[in-house]
Design a protein that fits this description.
The chain is of the alpha/beta class and about 290 residues long. It has one domain: Ureohydrolase domain (Arginase, Chain A). About 35% of the residues lie in helices and about 15% in strands. The strands form two sheets. An eight-stranded parallel sheet has the order 4-1-5-10-9-6-7-8, sandwiched between helices. It is globular. The two termini are about 30 Å apart. The mean pLDDT is about 95.
Length: about 290
């Protein structure tokens, strides 16, 4: 398996003993506004050393579970089809080895590669999707493999009623109409219906994708397509730990951090902390300490 030199803080377990495998997907070639998300994985690892492994929110430590960080994948920058296949193969191997793939994007298109692997192993899976944008376009300027189309491509794998969207506040009218017609379980603007959805999902396999632009730009300006009207940090943090601590999670990703868009480093700090809280909730689920 891969060997990484610089890992996210506390994620230095050996591959064989790890429950979760962290990896980066440094790809942003279909970004439609401000590029730079390919640098997120490196930035998150470096800045994670400004955190502690202890979460006072959950009263748990990251090292109570085993996480292996294999670093960033070496992707074929510029070819969306090839990079999606590389990501799919990576996630497929991690799943085959009985571990949970946790991907750091990258633009949101990278989610499709991981979802393809997860759907192959878990054809009855659901997706929980936090985002500012619908990502339901059939194509974007004639391109079907675009970050603006990623959830539409995921829907083609899963069908109606198994994609649960939260926080959405931007998109074309036809995307909103299409979602509201029953193709997705659509909860725009807020995260307030999350508990009911988690209850309904039950023990079904869940893939969780978090586009960090679900946050308000006043909290998280370092993203390629900032959209005013988002949630605050504590709301998102509580929601992601709720998902990761309760559902039968089989894979997840955090994407759309663009470090060059926020030279203060505040957005990277936010991303680091969200990832820490998610990891802690995942590795402690089932031991009576969370969820």
């Amino acid at each position: 398996m891969w060997k990484n030199v610089v890992n996210y803080i506390g994620c230095d377990a050996e591959y064989d003993e790890a429950r979760v495998v962290l990896y980066g997907a440094p790809f942003d070639s279909t970004t439609s506004f401000r590029p730079g998300t390919r640098f997120a994985g490196q930035a998150v690892r470096n800045d994670s050393y400004g955190l502690e492994i202890y979460s006072p929110y959950q009263d748990l430590e990251l090292t109570e579970g085993a996480v292996y960080d294999c670093g960033d994948l070496e992707l074929a920058i510029g070819d969306s089809g090839i990079i999606l296949e590389q990501i799919r193969e990576t996630a497929e191997q991690i799943l085959r080895d009985g571990k949970l793939p946790f991907m750091i994007g990258g633009e949101h298109l990278v989610t499709l590669g991981s979802v393809r692997a997860a759907a192959q192993k878990y054809p009855d899976m659901h997706i929980i999707h936090f985002d500012a944008h619908t990502d339901l376009r059939s194509d974007y300027l004639g391109v079907e493999l675009s970050h603006a189309c990623v959830i539409r491509r995921c829907w083609e794998l899963l069908g109606d009623g198994r994609i649960h969207q939260f926080g959405i506040r931007s998109g074309e009218k036809y995307e909103f109409d299409w979602a509201k017609s029953g193709h997705t379980d659509f909860h725009p603007f807020v995260l307030e219906d999350l508990d009911a959805v988690l209850e309904n999902v039950g023990d079904a396999p869940v893939y969780f994708t978090v586009d960090l632009d679900v946050l308000d730009p006043s909290v998280f300006p370092g993203t390629g397509t900032p959209e005013p009207g988002g949630v605050d940090f504590l709301t998102l943090m509580r929601a992601v730990t709720n998902v990761c601590g309760r559902v039968n999670l089989i894979g997840c990703d955090v994407n759309e951090l663009c470090p060059p868009c926020d030279p203060t480093g505040a957005s990277t700090a936010v991303a680091c902390k969200i990832i820490r809280e998610m990891l802690i909730a995942i590795v402690n689920r089932g031991n009576g300490k969370t969820g």
